[in-house]
Structures are given as structure tokens and as C-alpha cells.
Write a structure and sequence with these properties.
The protein contains 13 helices and 17 strands. With about 450 residues, the chain is α/β, with parallel strands linked by helices. It folds into three domains: about 1-25 and about 115-360, 3-Layer(aba) Sandwich (Rossmann fold); about 25-105, RNA polymerase II/Efflux pump adaptor protein, barrel-sandwich hybrid domain (OB fold (Dihydrolipoamide Acetyltransferase, E2P), Beta Barrel), CATH 2.40.50.100; about 370-445. The strands form four sheets. A six-stranded mixed β-sheet has the order 1-14-13-17-15-16. Helix 10 crosses helix 13. It is globular, with a radius of gyration of 21 Å. The protein starts with about 20 loop residues before the first strand and ends with a helix.
């Protein structure tokens, strides 16, 4: 069965929510919409306090003075109402960002001037890209890289393969699975629209073996359309870009490289669905599927939630229990622990995990057992990376391929010494970035 080297086999805990159909969540009284929900240039507000806005209206655009503004994505109002504030608010990314706060008027009125519903076959590749860009669509598996940029590679990079990442390997999360079960034809339509923008010859869907029903539905939806549906071994992180590319095509993305260096683009299930909604119906990205799961809620569920909805709203709908020890945006392996229930759902929010039994373990010095090396799907030496970071040795940090680590958490999961390896990696990357910025500033100066 198709797979990659390394990886781990944590209990997936998907049984808590996998059988819960997608459930539309009523829009909250107030939404908080960060101007930075994506990788790239942040947006600047196009509205001011007191303005009346409608659902789907652009409220944030990339800064027109920034030369890198192409790498960005506009932000749209997810409800109709009035702008109550424009101010910094905490986000699920452990940062504070300028946000447009909208008081919901309950009318849910759509904005004027949105693209009309159209037959996608009437659009050429440029027209499809324009609709994707104007809709503010980004990678919805967590990275939140603007989709129109991803499907616009440099001329020298010939893309011949498009992969739909339907692995959803992160434990607990089932929102992509529900989209596959409930809207397989829509996903395939979105995937083929993405394929048209790059004129690719090979289109794949990679599904883990623990989703045979989803794989079968996708096969039926893709029948006769030139799409290969392949089942991959259940192993974490099967859904990581480079690992999925290798599992399906046997192409290896080079160290420091990107998927486009081997002629491949990977898109997420939720992204493909958003593309279909934008291209066919002119609908901007204002809502997404979100899993709420864990032993800290009474009713795990999969919601269709408006962007800007506070985590608190989803948790109350699922019956937040007392005695919660940890709340995570995302899954347990790559998610981000939260200190507030009032952070909003953003474009990259795939799940909210609530745990009652999370415990912080005492960690010790590395015992050189090598388990982290065996588990690393990138073939790195996580033990050496963490030791270099712990010692604050910047030169060594730059020599141990720290930037190739995508923080999947396999090393931390298997470490018998309970070392916070991913914590050190994140710290080390931030330190190297600061050092490079200082060096660049000195050169300019």
C-alpha cells in the first residue's frame, strides 16, 4: 500500500466525530475577522467603524503599496451588519492582529456586485483564477497559502500533476471526511477546475485506508473524468505535502525545495470545495467545515461555521465540559494551544480539540535512543536539532536542516525522555529568522 518512510501510528480518535454530519451553525451576534488569515501580505481594512456591511462584501484588501501584495488574499464579511470596531484582537495563531469586528444585524443579506452564478465551462483558466483570487481562497488544511498563487507557478516550473489531499491524517479531525461523504461530486468538480488552471495531465486523489467509504464515493464521482483515486496506508503524517507526493508519485521534493520543483501541486479537500463554490456560484470564502472533538465536549460535531465565529460559540454548541485542561486549534499533533475561548474561526481552522486529561510531562536530557530519527518523515536528526536549539547554538542550528522540519510532532510523540522537540524547533526557526533580519538590516545600513 502506498506510503512514505518514517512516521508514527497514534490512535486516530476519529470515532468521536466521524459519523456526525455537517451541521450549519447559526451565525453569532458578532464576528471578529482578522486581516491576516493567510501566509503572505496582511490585508488592510477597506471599511471603517460605523459602516454598514453585507455578507460577502470585501472588508480587507492586500496593501496596495506592498510590492508582494500578489501573495495575499482578501477578507470578506461573513455576516451583514455594522462595523463595531477595527482593533487588534487575539487570533488562533497565538498572535494579535488587526481585526474588523461586525455586529450581526440578523438579516444575512448578500452584498451587491458579487460574481453571478455561471457555468464553469464558459470560463478559461484566467477566468477561473480570477474568481479564486477574488473569493479569498487559501489552503484550508492549515497552511493557508493563497490558492491563486499556488496555481500560478513561475513559467520555468512546469506542473504536470495535481493531487487532492484527502488523507486527513491528524487525529480527531473529520471535517474533510464529512465533505468527502456528503459532497464528493462537488469536490471532484473543484479539483478539475483547479486542474484546468494549470493544464495538468495527471490528477490524483490520495485517501487513507481508514476511509474506504469516502474513497468509493470519490471513485464514483471521478469515474470517466481522468482522476485517479488511490488509497494510502494509515500512518501519520500521510497528509503532509511531501510525504503524500512521494507516496503517490515516488517523486522526492529536494531539501529546501517545494512541490512545484518536482512538477506537483497539492490542494486540500476543503479548498477544492471552496473553489467550486467560488467559480460556479461566485461565493467568497466566508464559512468552513470545522470539527469540534475531544473528551472535553459532550457532543463532538462537524459544523459549517462562519469565519469570525468565536471558538466559544462552537464549544457551547457541543456542550463544553468543566475541568478542561487544554483547548487546541487544529489537531493534537500540529495544532496550537489556546489561552482564550474568544479567538475566531479563521480560514485555516480545521478543528477545535478539547482535552480534559492533557498533562505536561517533565522532560529530561536526550538519551540518544534514535527513536525520533526513525520516526522523522523528512529523514532529519531531531535529537541534534533540539540539542542545538537548547544550547542556543545559532551556527549549529543553521547546519542541521532545521528549516526542512515541518513540525509534524512525530519526534515529540515517540521521545521517551518527553523532550519538547517541536517547541525547540519553532524557537530555533524564529531565532534564525531574527538573525537573518538583523544581518540584512546591517547590510542595508
Amino acid at each position: 500500500m502506498r506510503t512514505f518512510s518514517g512516521g508514527i501510528h497514534p490512535h486516530d480518535c476519529k470515532e468521536l466525530a466521524k459519523d456526525k454530519p455537517l451541521q450549519p451553525l447559526p451565525p453569532p451576534p458578532q464576528v471578529v475577522l482578522p486581516m491576516s488569515q493567510h501566509l503572505g501580505v496582511p490585508c488592510v481594512p477597506t471599511v471603517k467603524k460605523g459602516d454598514a456591511v453585507r455578507k460577502g462584501q470585501v472588508i480587507g484588501q492586500p496593501d496596495p503599496t506592498n510590492p508582494r501584495r500578489f501573495v495575499s488574499a482578501p477578507v470578506h464579511a461573513s455576516v451583514s451588519g455594522k462595523v463595531a470596531a477595527i482593533e487588534p484582537r487575539p487570533t488562533p495563531l497565538s498572535t494579535s492582529a488587526p481585526c474588523v469586528v461586525i455586529e450581526n444585524d440578523g438579516q444575512d443579506a448578500w452584498a451587491d456586485g458579487l460574481p453571478a452564478e455561471t457555468d464553469p465551462s464558459s470560463l478559461d483558466a484566467a477566468g477561473i483564477k480570477t474568481r479564486i483570487q477574488e473569493a479569498g481562497i487559501v489552503g484550508m488544511g492549515g497552511a493557508a497559502f493563497p490558492t491563486h498563487v499556488k496555481i500560478s507557478p513561475p513559467p520555468e516550473k512546469r506542473i504536470d500533476t495535481l493531487i487532492l489531499n484527502a488523507a486527513e491524517c491528524e487525529p480527531y479531525l473529520t471535517c474533510d471526511y464529512r465533505l468527502m461523504l456528503e459532497r464528493p461530486a462537488d469536490l471532484v468538480e473543484g479539483l478539475l477546475l483547479l486542474a484546468r488552471t494549470m493544464d495538468v495531465k495527471d490528477v490524483w486523489i490520495g485517501v487513507e485506508a481508514n476511509k474506504p467509504d469516502a474513497a468509493e464515493l470519490l471513485r464514483r464521482a471521478a469515474d470517466g473524468k481522468g482522476v485517479r483515486v488511490e488509497v494510502c496506508k494509515v500512518k501519520y503524517p500521510q497528509g503532509a505535502e511531501k510525504q503524500l507526493i512521494y507516496a503517490l508519485t515516488r517523486r522526492k521534493v529536494p531539501t529546501g525545495g517545494l512541490p512545484l520543483d518536482v512538477g506537483v501541486v497539492v490542494q486540500n479537500v476543503a479548498t477544492a470545495y471552496a473553489v467550486r463554490e467560488a467559480v460556479r456560484f461566485g461565493k467568497p470564502l466566508i464559512e468552513r467545515a470545522v470539527t469540534v472533538s475531544g473528551d472535553g465536549v459532550e457532543r463532538p460535531a462537524n459544523y459549517l461555521a462562519r469565519l469570525g465565529t468565536p471558538f466559544r460559540t462552537l464549544l457551547e454548541a457541543s456542550g463544553l465540559r468543566s475541568g478542561v485542561r487544554k483547548i487546541i486549534s487544529g489537531g493534537p499533533m500540529m495544532g496550537i494551544a489556546q489561552s482564550s475561548l474568544d479567538v475566531p474561526v479563521i480560514k485555516g481552522t480545521s478543528g477545535i480539540l478539547v482535552l480534559q486529561q492533557a498533562e505536561a510531562a517533565d522532560w529530561r536530557a536526550c538519551i540518544s535512543c534514535g527513536r525520533c530519527v526513525e520516526a522523522c518523515p523528512m529523514g532529519l536528526m531531531p535529537n541534534e536539532i533540539s540539542i542545538a536549539c537548547e544550547a542556543r547554538n545559532h551556527d549549529l542550528m543553521g547546519a542541521v536542516d532545521i528549516l526542512d522540519c515541518f513540525e509534524c510532532g512525530c519526534c515529540t510523540y515517540v521521545c521517551p525522555a518527553k523532550r519538547p522537540i517541536v517547541h525547540w524547533v519553532k524557537w530555533g526557526k524564529a531565532e534564525l529568522a531574527k538573525r537573518r533580519a538583523q544581518q540584512q538590516k546591517q547590510k542595508v545600513g
